[in-house]
Design brief:
- The protein has 2 domains: 212 residues, Beta-lactamase (3-Layer(aba) Sandwich); 111 residues, Methane Monooxygenase Hydroxylase, Chain G, domain 1, CATH 1.20.58.710.
- 30% of the residues lie in helices and 19% in strands.
- An 8-stranded antiparallel β-sheet has the order 2-1-15-14-13-12-11-10, with helices on both faces. The protein has a 3-stranded antiparallel β-sheet with strand order 5-7-6.
- A hairpin with a 4-residue loop joins strand 11 and strand 12.
- Helix 3 packs parallel to helix 8 and helix 3 crosses helix 9.
- The radius of gyration is 20 Å and the shape is globular.
- The two termini are 35 Å apart.
- This is CubicO group peptidase, beta-lactamase class C family.
- Pfam families: Beta-lactamase.
- Keywords: Signal.
- It comes from Falsiroseomonas stagni DSM 19981.
């Protein structure tokens, strides 16, 4: 749930002057950043105070230019397996955890535009004909792909327990002989569309539809359809076994490459002027489907909120992951913030990245 996923040695990396004709995400500081000149020092003050200690990395960009980039060494994990202390930097791969869910939803939108996956309003069980007994259940007849995209399936699911606990629904799913049957046979506890229930079950179903429709594994499809156009050449996607990649939590990227995903949201799905994610899919993604906790709303596998300034509400779109992994995009301000953190399975992991977003970025942002 959001509330659960709610003295650094490395010096701030120098910014790099933008090169004419470079990628739309060229590091560098524009002449007018819209932030105070001492923004970097304000971030450093947060580190010196100890309030930002769990962070592994921060990248803040505006209008395609990196304004701040800061890394810190610390203990890390790879899909739940401790790997000891890591000296993080621009080339270090890091777990996205549940930010993976939002990336998977972008892949679904690309596959949908190619006619390779069911439309959102298609009956969900029709896409899984190997379970005729479940498809015949009248209580499940109204479940559609859209309910998976909005996490409103109406099926029992509980990820409130730690991810080290086998009773956690996602862990139980990963250990089940058949992940898809485990998801689809869960008891119906609410009408589809009526209740938001956070869970990797919905994303696992989307991942299965992508792999079935495209005839390719998630990593292979992601490499061709999303990562290659963005110049992302290094990534990992963890799996329970061959062909069983975790669509919900298995992706690892560098922080700069995660920020590129945020840039796609800022530009309406284009990179260097070429469409990558359909603009209409991003528009649907940013359309609230249901209200959720903490006063936020949820679209198609992305969190939605607003920054209020100058008497107006400026919508943002975000992706959140266990341990404090975060990606925010505020398109009206041309803003992208990407954060890696090591607070895995800690109830207050949301606090540090949210403090940076609200108190360092938004509080110092000049709009207009």
């Amino acid at each position: 749930m959001i509330g659960r996923r709610r003295a650094i040695a490395a010096a701030m990396l120098p910014v790099i002057a933008a090169t004419p004709g470079a990628s739309a995400f060229a590091p560098g500081v524009p002449a007018e950043s819209g932030f105070p000149a001492d923004l970097a020092e304000r971030l450093e003050a947060g580190f010196r105070s100890g309030l930002l200690r769990p962070l592994h990395g921060v990248v803040l960009a505006r209008d395609g230019r990196i304004l701040l980039e800061r890394y810190a060494p610390g203990p890390d994990q790879v899909w739940g397996r401790p790997v000891g202390d890591v000296d993080f930097g621009p080339d270090t791969l890091h777990d996205l955890r549940s930010v993976t869910k939002s990336v998977t939803a972008l892949l679904y939108g690309i596959a949908l535009a190619r006619g390779q996956v069911p439309i959102p309003d298609a009956p969900l069980h029709a896409a899984f004909p190997e379970f005729p007994d479940l498809a015949a259940d009248p209580a499940r007849a109204g479940i559609t792909v859209r309910h998976a995209l909005t996490m409103t399936l109406g099926l029992r699911w509980d990820e409130s327990l730690p991810y080290t606990d086998p009773r956690n629904s996602e862990i139980a799913m990963e250990q089940a002989p058949d992940r898809l049957r485990f998801i689809l046979e869960q008891p119906v506890v609410a009408p589809p569309g009526a209740r938001w229930t956070y869970g990797g079950n919905a994303t696992t179903l989307l991942g299965a539809l992508i792999t079935r429709g495209t005839g390719r594994s998630l990593p292979d499809f992601a490499r061709e359809a999303l990562f290659a156009p963005l110049g992302i050449t290094r990534f990992e996607w963890h799996a329970r076994g061959p062909g069983a990649e975790s669509a919900a939590s298995g992706l690892r990227l560098t922080l700069r490459d995660l920020a590129k995903i945020g840039e796609l949201l800022r530009t309406g799905g284009s990179w260097d002027g070429r469409p990558v994610v359909p603009r209409d899919w991003l528009a649907a993604t940013a359309t609230p489907a249901i209200g959720i906790e903490d006063g936020l709303r949820y679209g198609l596998h992305w969190y939605l909120g607003a920054h209020r300034a100058g008497g107006a509400a400026h919508p943002w779109i975000g992706a959140f992951g266990n341990g404090g992994q975060r990606l925010w995009s505020l398109p009206a301000a041309g803003l992208t913030l990407a954060i890696f953190s090591g607070d895995y399975d800690q109830p207050e992991a949301w606090m540090t990245p949210t403090r940076i977003w609200r108190e360092i970025v938004l509080a110092n942002l000049r709009l207009g």
